[in-house]
Amino acid sequence: MTNNGRKIKIQVQNLTKRFGDLLVLNNISFNVYEGEFLCIVGPTGCGKTTFLNVLTKLHPATEGDIYIDGEPANPQKHNISFVFQEPSTMPWLTVEQNIRYGLEVKKVPEEEIKKRLNQVMELVGLKDFRNYYPRQLSASMDQRVVIARAFAINPDLLLMDEPYSQLDIKLRYYLEDEVIRIWREMKRTVIFVTHNIEEAVYLAERILILTPKPATIKKEIKVDLPRPRNFADPEFVNIRNQVTEMIKWW
Amino acid sequence: MNAKASPAEIFSRFLPLTSLLLIIIVWQFAATGGYFGKSLPSPVAVVNQFVDMLAEPVGKTILGGHIWASMRRVLTAFAVAVLIGIPMGLLMGWNKKAEAIIKPIFEIFRPIPPIAWIPLAILWFGIEETPKVFICFIGAFIPAVMNAYTGIRFTDPLLLDAARSQGANLRQLFKEVAVPSALPAIFAGLQNGLSLCWMCVLAAEMVGAEEGVGYLILRGMDMSNPAMIITGMLIIGAVGALIAVGLRYVERWVCPWKREISM
After folding, report:
1. CA distance B22 to chain A (A)
2. CATH number of the domain at B68-212, please?
Protein backbone atom coordinates (compact mmCIF):
# COMPACT_ATOMS: atom_id res chain seq x y z
CA MET A 1 0.00 0.00 0.00
CA THR A 2 1.72 3.16 -1.12
CA ASN A 3 1.05 6.30 0.83
CA ASN A 4 3.39 8.85 -0.75
CA GLY A 5 5.63 8.56 2.26
CA ARG A 6 2.95 9.83 4.67
CA LYS A 7 2.81 8.40 8.14
CA ILE A 8 -0.12 6.48 9.54
CA LYS A 9 -2.43 8.74 11.56
CA ILE A 10 -5.38 6.50 12.37
CA GLN A 11 -5.34 2.75 12.84
CA VAL A 12 -8.61 0.90 13.01
CA GLN A 13 -7.98 -2.63 14.23
CA ASN A 14 -10.42 -5.53 14.13
CA LEU A 15 -13.38 -3.30 14.82
CA THR A 16 -16.44 -5.40 15.62
CA LYS A 17 -19.83 -4.30 16.90
CA ARG A 18 -22.67 -6.54 17.96
CA PHE A 19 -26.09 -5.62 19.25
CA GLY A 20 -27.02 -8.81 21.06
CA ASP A 21 -26.87 -11.48 18.36
CA LEU A 22 -26.89 -9.00 15.53
CA LEU A 23 -23.46 -8.56 14.03
CA VAL A 24 -23.28 -5.09 12.49
CA LEU A 25 -19.57 -4.49 12.00
CA ASN A 26 -17.45 -7.49 11.21
CA ASN A 27 -13.76 -7.24 11.95
CA ILE A 28 -12.95 -4.01 10.13
CA SER A 29 -9.31 -2.98 9.89
CA PHE A 30 -7.77 -0.14 7.94
CA ASN A 31 -5.35 2.75 8.23
CA VAL A 32 -5.75 6.41 7.43
CA TYR A 33 -2.67 8.43 6.61
CA GLU A 34 -1.80 11.83 7.93
CA GLY A 35 -3.71 14.49 6.00
CA GLU A 36 -5.58 12.00 3.88
CA PHE A 37 -9.09 12.47 2.47
CA LEU A 38 -10.72 9.06 2.75
CA CYS A 39 -14.24 8.31 1.56
CA ILE A 40 -16.26 5.37 2.76
CA VAL A 41 -19.18 4.21 0.65
CA GLY A 42 -21.56 1.35 1.18
CA PRO A 43 -25.07 0.23 0.37
CA THR A 44 -27.81 1.85 2.43
CA GLY A 45 -28.36 0.15 5.76
CA CYS A 46 -24.91 -1.39 5.85
CA GLY A 47 -24.21 0.03 9.29
CA LYS A 48 -22.42 3.25 8.33
CA THR A 49 -23.92 5.19 11.21
CA THR A 50 -22.97 2.53 13.72
CA PHE A 51 -19.52 2.48 12.22
CA LEU A 52 -19.11 6.22 12.73
CA ASN A 53 -20.55 6.20 16.23
CA VAL A 54 -18.05 3.54 17.21
CA LEU A 55 -15.22 5.36 15.46
CA THR A 56 -15.89 8.56 17.40
CA LYS A 57 -16.28 6.62 20.61
CA LEU A 58 -19.85 7.77 21.05
CA HIS A 59 -20.65 4.07 21.36
CA PRO A 60 -18.31 1.40 22.68
CA ALA A 61 -16.97 -1.21 20.27
CA THR A 62 -17.60 -4.86 21.04
CA GLU A 63 -14.10 -5.80 19.95
CA GLY A 64 -11.14 -4.03 18.47
CA ASP A 65 -10.04 -0.45 18.89
CA ILE A 66 -9.11 2.77 17.18
CA TYR A 67 -5.67 4.30 17.58
CA ILE A 68 -4.74 7.88 16.89
CA ASP A 69 -0.96 8.38 16.61
CA GLY A 70 -0.60 4.94 18.14
CA GLU A 71 -2.70 5.71 21.22
CA PRO A 72 -6.27 4.48 21.85
CA ALA A 73 -8.64 7.22 20.66
CA ASN A 74 -10.17 9.33 23.43
CA PRO A 75 -12.53 12.25 22.71
CA GLN A 76 -11.43 14.06 25.85
CA LYS A 77 -7.82 13.96 24.76
CA HIS A 78 -7.76 13.75 20.98
CA ASN A 79 -9.45 16.21 18.76
CA ILE A 80 -12.09 14.30 16.88
CA SER A 81 -14.58 16.39 14.94
CA PHE A 82 -17.89 15.11 13.73
CA VAL A 83 -20.03 16.70 11.05
CA PHE A 84 -23.45 15.12 11.30
CA GLN A 85 -26.00 14.60 8.61
CA GLU A 86 -28.60 16.82 10.28
CA PRO A 87 -27.88 20.37 11.36
CA SER A 88 -26.15 20.16 14.74
CA THR A 89 -25.42 23.75 15.69
CA MET A 90 -26.57 24.74 19.16
CA PRO A 91 -29.62 26.97 18.57
CA TRP A 92 -28.91 29.05 21.68
CA LEU A 93 -25.37 29.96 20.64
CA THR A 94 -24.43 32.50 18.00
CA VAL A 95 -22.29 31.48 15.03
CA GLU A 96 -19.17 32.60 16.85
CA GLN A 97 -20.14 30.91 20.13
CA ASN A 98 -20.92 27.70 18.27
CA ILE A 99 -17.46 27.65 16.75
CA ARG A 100 -15.83 28.60 20.07
CA TYR A 101 -17.59 25.87 21.99
CA GLY A 102 -15.25 22.98 21.28
CA LEU A 103 -12.20 25.23 21.77
CA GLU A 104 -13.45 26.31 25.17
CA VAL A 105 -14.21 22.74 26.19
CA LYS A 106 -10.64 21.86 25.24
CA LYS A 107 -9.40 24.86 27.27
CA VAL A 108 -7.52 26.40 24.36
CA PRO A 109 -6.05 29.75 25.47
CA GLU A 110 -8.16 32.81 24.57
CA GLU A 111 -5.44 34.26 22.30
CA GLU A 112 -5.36 31.08 20.26
CA ILE A 113 -9.18 30.85 20.16
CA LYS A 114 -9.39 34.32 18.65
CA LYS A 115 -6.77 33.49 16.06
CA ARG A 116 -8.47 30.30 14.96
CA LEU A 117 -11.93 31.86 14.99
CA ASN A 118 -10.81 34.52 12.57
CA GLN A 119 -9.09 31.98 10.40
CA VAL A 120 -12.01 29.56 10.04
CA MET A 121 -14.69 32.23 9.79
CA GLU A 122 -12.71 33.82 6.99
CA LEU A 123 -12.33 30.42 5.37
CA VAL A 124 -16.03 29.56 5.33
CA GLY A 125 -17.20 33.12 4.72
CA LEU A 126 -19.11 33.64 7.96
CA LYS A 127 -17.30 36.71 9.23
CA ASP A 128 -20.27 39.02 8.78
CA PHE A 129 -22.58 36.57 10.49
CA ARG A 130 -20.68 35.95 13.71
CA ASN A 131 -23.45 37.31 15.92
CA TYR A 132 -26.31 35.56 14.15
CA TYR A 133 -28.23 32.69 15.68
CA PRO A 134 -28.48 29.49 13.62
CA ARG A 135 -32.21 29.91 13.00
CA GLN A 136 -31.43 33.15 11.22
CA LEU A 137 -29.23 31.27 8.73
CA SER A 138 -30.02 29.17 5.69
CA ALA A 139 -29.45 25.39 5.74
CA SER A 140 -26.19 25.62 3.82
CA MET A 141 -24.84 28.39 6.03
CA ASP A 142 -25.79 26.39 9.08
CA GLN A 143 -23.83 23.42 7.74
CA ARG A 144 -20.90 25.75 7.06
CA VAL A 145 -20.94 26.72 10.75
CA VAL A 146 -20.66 23.03 11.61
CA ILE A 147 -17.78 22.61 9.18
CA ALA A 148 -16.04 25.69 10.59
CA ARG A 149 -16.55 24.34 14.11
CA ALA A 150 -15.15 20.99 13.02
CA PHE A 151 -11.99 22.46 11.50
CA ALA A 152 -11.48 25.05 14.26
CA ILE A 153 -10.37 22.50 16.82
CA ASN A 154 -7.57 21.40 14.45
CA PRO A 155 -8.93 17.87 14.50
CA ASP A 156 -6.66 14.85 14.51
CA LEU A 157 -9.53 13.22 12.72
CA LEU A 158 -12.52 14.81 11.02
CA LEU A 159 -15.49 12.54 10.42
CA MET A 160 -18.22 13.61 8.06
CA ASP A 161 -21.44 11.60 7.97
CA GLU A 162 -23.26 12.30 4.69
CA PRO A 163 -23.02 15.97 5.55
CA TYR A 164 -24.59 17.18 2.30
CA SER A 165 -27.34 14.64 1.78
CA GLN A 166 -29.97 17.09 3.07
CA LEU A 167 -28.93 19.88 0.73
CA ASP A 168 -30.00 20.52 -2.84
CA ILE A 169 -27.61 19.61 -5.62
CA LYS A 170 -26.28 23.09 -6.32
CA LEU A 171 -25.32 23.69 -2.71
CA ARG A 172 -23.84 20.24 -2.53
CA TYR A 173 -21.47 20.92 -5.42
CA TYR A 174 -20.56 24.22 -3.87
CA LEU A 175 -19.86 22.80 -0.42
CA GLU A 176 -17.92 19.85 -1.86
CA ASP A 177 -15.51 22.30 -3.43
CA GLU A 178 -15.48 24.26 -0.20
CA VAL A 179 -14.55 21.29 1.94
CA ILE A 180 -11.73 20.34 -0.43
CA ARG A 181 -10.42 23.89 -0.32
CA ILE A 182 -10.55 24.00 3.48
CA TRP A 183 -9.04 20.54 3.79
CA ARG A 184 -6.08 21.53 1.60
CA GLU A 185 -5.56 24.71 3.58
CA MET A 186 -5.87 23.15 7.04
CA LYS A 187 -4.17 19.83 6.13
CA ARG A 188 -6.39 17.63 8.27
CA THR A 189 -7.20 13.91 8.14
CA VAL A 190 -10.75 13.40 6.91
CA ILE A 191 -13.06 10.39 6.79
CA PHE A 192 -16.07 11.24 4.68
CA VAL A 193 -18.98 8.79 4.64
CA THR A 194 -21.49 8.96 1.82
CA HIS A 195 -23.83 6.79 -0.20
CA ASN A 196 -23.35 9.06 -3.19
CA ILE A 197 -20.76 7.36 -5.40
CA GLU A 198 -20.12 10.38 -7.57
CA GLU A 199 -19.49 12.48 -4.49
CA ALA A 200 -17.00 9.92 -3.21
CA VAL A 201 -15.06 9.86 -6.49
CA TYR A 202 -15.11 13.63 -6.67
CA LEU A 203 -13.71 14.10 -3.16
CA ALA A 204 -11.60 11.13 -2.16
CA GLU A 205 -7.94 10.31 -2.40
CA ARG A 206 -8.93 6.78 -1.51
CA ILE A 207 -12.29 5.05 -1.31
CA LEU A 208 -13.19 2.17 0.99
CA ILE A 209 -16.21 0.16 -0.12
CA LEU A 210 -18.23 -1.62 2.55
CA THR A 211 -20.24 -4.80 2.10
CA PRO A 212 -23.90 -5.07 3.17
CA LYS A 213 -24.51 -5.91 6.83
CA PRO A 214 -22.53 -7.22 8.62
CA ALA A 215 -20.25 -4.57 7.22
CA THR A 216 -16.68 -5.28 6.38
CA ILE A 217 -14.31 -3.75 3.87
CA LYS A 218 -14.90 -5.14 0.41
CA LYS A 219 -12.41 -3.19 -1.62
CA GLU A 220 -10.12 -0.22 -1.59
CA ILE A 221 -9.79 2.08 -4.59
CA LYS A 222 -7.28 4.86 -5.05
CA VAL A 223 -8.46 7.96 -6.86
CA ASP A 224 -5.41 9.66 -8.28
CA LEU A 225 -7.01 12.37 -10.38
CA PRO A 226 -6.02 16.05 -10.51
CA ARG A 227 -8.27 18.62 -8.82
CA PRO A 228 -10.65 20.19 -9.49
CA ARG A 229 -12.02 16.95 -10.85
CA ASN A 230 -14.18 16.71 -13.91
CA PHE A 231 -17.31 14.56 -13.75
CA ALA A 232 -17.05 13.91 -17.51
CA ASP A 233 -13.39 12.88 -17.50
CA PRO A 234 -13.26 9.26 -18.88
CA GLU A 235 -10.98 8.25 -16.03
CA PHE A 236 -13.49 9.71 -13.50
CA VAL A 237 -16.35 7.83 -15.17
CA ASN A 238 -14.28 4.67 -15.18
CA ILE A 239 -13.64 4.81 -11.43
CA ARG A 240 -17.25 5.69 -10.76
CA ASN A 241 -18.42 2.64 -12.72
CA GLN A 242 -15.93 0.47 -10.88
CA VAL A 243 -17.31 1.59 -7.51
CA THR A 244 -20.91 1.23 -8.68
CA GLU A 245 -20.24 -2.30 -9.87
CA MET A 246 -18.77 -3.14 -6.47
CA ILE A 247 -21.70 -1.78 -4.52
CA LYS A 248 -24.48 -3.34 -6.61
CA TRP A 249 -26.85 -5.52 -4.69
CA TRP A 250 -29.20 -6.25 -7.59
CA MET B 1 -41.77 48.95 10.38
CA ASN B 2 -40.59 51.33 7.71
CA ALA B 3 -43.05 50.58 4.90
CA LYS B 4 -46.03 52.89 4.73
CA ALA B 5 -49.21 51.23 5.93
CA SER B 6 -51.96 51.00 3.34
CA PRO B 7 -55.50 52.09 4.30
CA ALA B 8 -56.53 48.43 4.49
CA GLU B 9 -53.74 47.74 7.00
CA ILE B 10 -54.70 50.73 9.11
CA PHE B 11 -58.29 49.52 9.07
CA SER B 12 -57.34 46.01 10.17
CA ARG B 13 -55.21 47.44 12.94
CA PHE B 14 -58.25 49.25 14.31
CA LEU B 15 -60.52 46.23 14.10
CA PRO B 16 -59.77 44.95 17.63
CA LEU B 17 -60.45 48.41 19.02
CA THR B 18 -63.72 48.55 17.13
CA SER B 19 -64.94 45.28 18.56
CA LEU B 20 -64.00 46.36 22.10
CA LEU B 21 -65.82 49.62 21.64
CA LEU B 22 -68.86 47.74 20.36
CA ILE B 23 -68.96 45.57 23.49
CA ILE B 24 -68.79 48.62 25.73
CA ILE B 25 -71.61 50.31 23.82
CA VAL B 26 -73.83 47.20 23.98
CA TRP B 27 -73.01 46.88 27.67
CA GLN B 28 -73.93 50.51 28.31
CA PHE B 29 -77.29 50.11 26.54
CA ALA B 30 -78.03 46.84 28.30
CA ALA B 31 -77.30 48.42 31.68
CA THR B 32 -79.24 51.66 31.17
CA GLY B 33 -82.10 49.81 29.47
CA GLY B 34 -82.82 48.15 32.79
CA TYR B 35 -83.12 44.58 31.44
CA PHE B 36 -81.01 43.23 34.33
CA GLY B 37 -82.47 45.36 37.08
CA LYS B 38 -79.78 46.57 39.40
CA SER B 39 -77.44 43.60 38.95
CA LEU B 40 -75.72 44.99 35.83
CA PRO B 41 -73.97 48.31 36.42
CA SER B 42 -73.09 50.48 33.45
CA PRO B 43 -69.47 50.86 32.29
CA VAL B 44 -69.52 54.39 33.65
CA ALA B 45 -70.57 53.10 37.08
CA VAL B 46 -67.72 50.60 37.02
CA VAL B 47 -65.21 53.31 36.17
CA ASN B 48 -66.59 55.45 39.02
CA GLN B 49 -66.34 52.50 41.39
CA PHE B 50 -62.76 51.93 40.28
CA VAL B 51 -61.81 55.56 40.88
CA ASP B 52 -63.51 55.48 44.31
CA MET B 53 -61.63 52.38 45.36
CA LEU B 54 -58.29 53.92 44.41
CA ALA B 55 -58.59 56.20 47.42
CA GLU B 56 -61.37 54.84 49.64
CA PRO B 57 -60.62 51.67 51.55
CA VAL B 58 -62.79 48.55 51.12
CA GLY B 59 -62.40 46.60 54.34
CA LYS B 60 -58.84 47.09 55.57
CA THR B 61 -57.23 48.75 52.59
CA ILE B 62 -57.63 50.58 49.29
CA LEU B 63 -57.54 48.90 45.85
CA GLY B 64 -53.75 49.06 45.55
CA GLY B 65 -53.45 47.33 48.92
CA HIS B 66 -55.72 44.51 47.79
CA ILE B 67 -53.78 44.01 44.59
CA TRP B 68 -50.52 43.97 46.52
CA ALA B 69 -51.94 41.47 49.05
CA SER B 70 -52.78 39.04 46.23
CA MET B 71 -49.52 39.68 44.40
CA ARG B 72 -47.50 39.08 47.56
CA ARG B 73 -49.07 35.66 48.02
CA VAL B 74 -48.59 34.77 44.36
CA LEU B 75 -44.98 35.93 44.21
CA THR B 76 -43.99 34.17 47.43
CA ALA B 77 -45.56 30.92 46.29
CA PHE B 78 -44.15 31.29 42.79
CA ALA B 79 -40.62 31.95 44.02
CA VAL B 80 -40.66 28.89 46.28
CA ALA B 81 -42.18 26.74 43.51
CA VAL B 82 -39.50 27.83 41.05
CA LEU B 83 -36.64 27.36 43.51
CA ILE B 84 -37.71 23.83 44.38
CA GLY B 85 -39.57 22.78 41.25
CA ILE B 86 -37.07 23.57 38.51
CA PRO B 87 -34.06 21.83 40.10
CA MET B 88 -36.32 18.88 40.84
CA GLY B 89 -37.57 18.72 37.25
CA LEU B 90 -34.03 19.06 35.89
CA LEU B 91 -32.83 16.25 38.13
CA MET B 92 -35.75 14.08 37.11
CA GLY B 93 -35.11 14.69 33.43
CA TRP B 94 -31.38 14.02 33.62
CA ASN B 95 -31.12 11.18 36.10
CA LYS B 96 -32.91 7.92 35.36
CA LYS B 97 -32.97 6.90 39.05
CA ALA B 98 -34.44 10.22 40.17
CA GLU B 99 -37.03 9.89 37.43
CA ALA B 100 -37.98 6.40 38.60
CA ILE B 101 -38.40 7.62 42.17
CA ILE B 102 -40.10 10.98 41.71
CA LYS B 103 -42.23 10.51 38.62
CA PRO B 104 -44.84 8.08 40.04
CA ILE B 105 -45.56 10.51 42.86
CA PHE B 106 -46.17 13.21 40.31
CA GLU B 107 -48.41 11.05 38.21
CA ILE B 108 -50.69 10.77 41.25
CA PHE B 109 -50.69 14.43 42.23
CA ARG B 110 -50.65 16.03 38.80
CA PRO B 111 -54.31 15.51 37.86
CA ILE B 112 -55.58 16.92 41.19
CA PRO B 113 -56.55 20.58 40.65
CA PRO B 114 -54.75 22.87 43.13
CA ILE B 115 -58.10 24.20 44.33
CA ALA B 116 -59.00 20.72 45.61
CA TRP B 117 -56.27 21.26 48.22
CA ILE B 118 -58.09 24.19 49.84
CA PRO B 119 -59.95 22.24 52.57
CA LEU B 120 -56.84 20.30 53.60
CA ALA B 121 -54.75 23.47 53.49
CA ILE B 122 -57.17 25.19 55.84
CA LEU B 123 -57.20 22.22 58.22
CA TRP B 124 -53.42 22.06 58.21
CA PHE B 125 -52.46 25.71 58.18
CA GLY B 126 -55.51 27.59 59.54
CA ILE B 127 -56.98 30.58 57.74
CA GLU B 128 -54.03 32.97 57.74
CA GLU B 129 -51.56 33.51 54.91
CA THR B 130 -50.00 30.05 54.82
CA PRO B 131 -52.88 28.08 53.28
CA LYS B 132 -53.30 30.66 50.49
CA VAL B 133 -49.60 30.61 49.69
CA PHE B 134 -49.67 26.83 49.86
CA ILE B 135 -52.48 26.56 47.28
CA CYS B 136 -50.64 28.93 44.95
CA PHE B 137 -47.46 26.94 45.47
CA ILE B 138 -49.20 23.76 44.32
CA GLY B 139 -50.47 25.63 41.27
CA ALA B 140 -47.02 26.78 40.18
CA PHE B 141 -44.99 23.82 41.41
CA ILE B 142 -46.43 21.15 39.14
CA PRO B 143 -45.93 22.94 35.80
CA ALA B 144 -42.48 24.08 36.96
CA VAL B 145 -41.39 20.49 37.63
CA MET B 146 -43.11 18.94 34.63
CA ASN B 147 -41.80 21.40 32.08
CA ALA B 148 -38.24 21.32 33.36
CA TYR B 149 -38.48 17.54 33.25
CA THR B 150 -39.86 17.28 29.70
CA GLY B 151 -37.54 20.07 28.53
CA ILE B 152 -34.51 18.03 29.57
CA ARG B 153 -35.96 14.77 28.30
CA PHE B 154 -36.54 16.25 24.85
CA THR B 155 -33.00 17.51 24.44
CA ASP B 156 -32.00 16.60 20.89
CA PRO B 157 -29.67 13.58 21.22
CA LEU B 158 -27.80 14.86 18.17
CA LEU B 159 -26.78 18.00 20.05
CA LEU B 160 -25.62 15.91 22.99
CA ASP B 161 -23.57 13.78 20.58
CA ALA B 162 -22.21 16.91 18.93
CA ALA B 163 -21.02 18.29 22.27
CA ARG B 164 -19.74 14.91 23.41
CA SER B 165 -17.72 14.50 20.23
CA GLN B 166 -16.15 17.88 20.97
CA GLY B 167 -14.98 16.52 24.29
CA ALA B 168 -17.69 17.77 26.67
CA ASN B 169 -17.97 15.79 29.90
CA LEU B 170 -21.21 14.82 31.63
CA ARG B 171 -21.41 17.98 33.70
CA GLN B 172 -20.86 20.13 30.62
CA LEU B 173 -23.46 18.19 28.65
CA PHE B 174 -25.99 18.96 31.35
CA LYS B 175 -25.07 22.57 31.95
CA GLU B 176 -24.20 23.64 28.44
CA VAL B 177 -26.53 21.55 26.28
CA ALA B 178 -29.47 20.04 28.16
CA VAL B 179 -30.34 23.07 30.30
CA PRO B 180 -30.19 25.71 27.55
CA SER B 181 -32.19 23.49 25.23
CA ALA B 182 -34.79 23.05 27.99
CA LEU B 183 -35.06 26.78 28.73
CA PRO B 184 -37.95 27.54 26.35
CA ALA B 185 -39.96 24.66 27.81
CA ILE B 186 -39.10 25.83 31.32
CA PHE B 187 -40.36 29.30 30.51
CA ALA B 188 -43.58 27.93 29.09
CA GLY B 189 -43.99 26.12 32.41
CA LEU B 190 -43.34 29.30 34.39
CA GLN B 191 -45.84 31.15 32.25
CA ASN B 192 -48.42 28.45 32.95
CA GLY B 193 -47.50 28.24 36.60
CA LEU B 194 -47.80 31.95 37.18
CA SER B 195 -51.24 32.21 35.62
CA LEU B 196 -52.37 29.15 37.55
CA CYS B 197 -50.95 30.76 40.69
CA TRP B 198 -52.98 33.86 40.03
CA MET B 199 -56.16 31.80 39.60
CA CYS B 200 -55.44 29.86 42.76
CA VAL B 201 -54.94 32.95 44.89
CA LEU B 202 -58.40 34.20 43.93
CA ALA B 203 -60.01 30.90 44.79
CA ALA B 204 -58.16 30.78 48.10
CA GLU B 205 -59.13 34.36 48.92
CA MET B 206 -62.76 33.75 48.08
CA VAL B 207 -62.85 31.00 50.69
CA GLY B 208 -61.74 33.33 53.43
CA ALA B 209 -59.57 36.41 53.50
CA GLU B 210 -59.59 39.97 54.76
CA GLU B 211 -57.72 41.47 51.87
CA GLY B 212 -56.88 40.62 48.28
CA VAL B 213 -58.66 40.86 44.96
CA GLY B 214 -60.62 37.66 45.60
CA TYR B 215 -61.86 39.24 48.81
CA LEU B 216 -62.99 42.33 46.84
CA ILE B 217 -65.21 40.27 44.56
CA LEU B 218 -66.79 38.42 47.45
CA ARG B 219 -67.24 41.63 49.39
CA GLY B 220 -69.00 43.10 46.34
CA MET B 221 -71.41 40.19 46.40
CA ASP B 222 -72.07 40.55 50.14
CA MET B 223 -72.74 44.26 49.74
CA SER B 224 -74.87 43.73 46.58
CA ASN B 225 -72.47 45.98 44.73
CA PRO B 226 -72.07 44.51 41.24
CA ALA B 227 -69.88 47.42 40.15
CA MET B 228 -67.33 46.31 42.75
CA ILE B 229 -67.52 42.71 41.49
CA ILE B 230 -66.94 43.75 37.90
CA THR B 231 -64.14 46.11 38.87
CA GLY B 232 -62.53 43.21 40.73
CA MET B 233 -62.92 40.93 37.73
CA LEU B 234 -61.39 43.45 35.35
CA ILE B 235 -58.50 44.04 37.74
CA ILE B 236 -57.88 40.30 37.89
CA GLY B 237 -57.79 40.12 34.10
CA ALA B 238 -55.51 43.13 33.79
CA VAL B 239 -53.03 41.97 36.43
CA GLY B 240 -52.97 38.46 34.94
CA ALA B 241 -52.21 39.90 31.51
CA LEU B 242 -49.50 42.18 32.89
CA ILE B 243 -47.84 39.24 34.65
CA ALA B 244 -47.83 37.26 31.39
CA VAL B 245 -46.33 40.15 29.45
CA GLY B 246 -43.68 40.70 32.12
CA LEU B 247 -42.62 37.08 32.02
CA ARG B 248 -42.46 37.17 28.23
CA TYR B 249 -39.96 40.02 28.49
CA VAL B 250 -37.84 38.02 30.90
CA GLU B 251 -37.95 35.09 28.47
CA ARG B 252 -36.84 37.23 25.56
CA TRP B 253 -33.95 38.41 27.66
CA VAL B 254 -32.91 34.93 28.84
CA CYS B 255 -33.53 33.15 25.51
CA PRO B 256 -32.48 35.71 22.89
CA TRP B 257 -32.22 33.02 20.21
CA LYS B 258 -35.99 32.53 20.33
CA ARG B 259 -36.59 36.11 19.33
CA GLU B 260 -38.38 36.81 16.10
CA ILE B 261 -36.05 37.18 13.17
CA SER B 262 -35.51 40.88 12.83
CA MET B 263 -32.43 42.81 11.88
Report:
1. 41
2. 1.10.3720.10
Alpha carbons A179 and A185: distance in angstroms, whole number: 10
A-chain residue closest to B177, CA distance: A90
B168 and A105: CB-CB below 8 Å?
A: yes
Q: Of the candidates A158, A147, A150, A154, which has an alpha carbon nearest to the alpha carbon of residue A10?
A: A158
Domains of chain A in start order, with CATH, are 1-78+156-250 (3.40.50.300), 88-155 (no CATH)
Cβ contact B164–A101 (<8 Å): no
Smallest CA–CA separation between A23 and chain B, in Å?
Answer: 23
**Complex ipTM, two decimals?**
0.83
Backbone phi and psi for residue A188, each to the nearest 5 degrees, phi listed first: -110, 165
Query: CB B163 to CB A153 under 8 A?
Result: no
Say if A129 is an interface residue toward chain B (CB within 8 Å).
no
Report which secondary-structure segment, H or E, holds A64: strand A63-68
CB-CB under 8 Å, A133 with B257? yes
pTM, two decimal places: 0.81
d(CA B56, CA B52): 6
pLDDT in tens, B19-76: 889 999 998 888 888 777 777 888 888 999 999 888 888 888 899 999 999 999 999 9
Domain layout of chain B by residue ranges: 68-212
Determine whether the interchain pair A56/B165 forms a contact, defined as Cβ–Cβ distance below 8 Å: yes
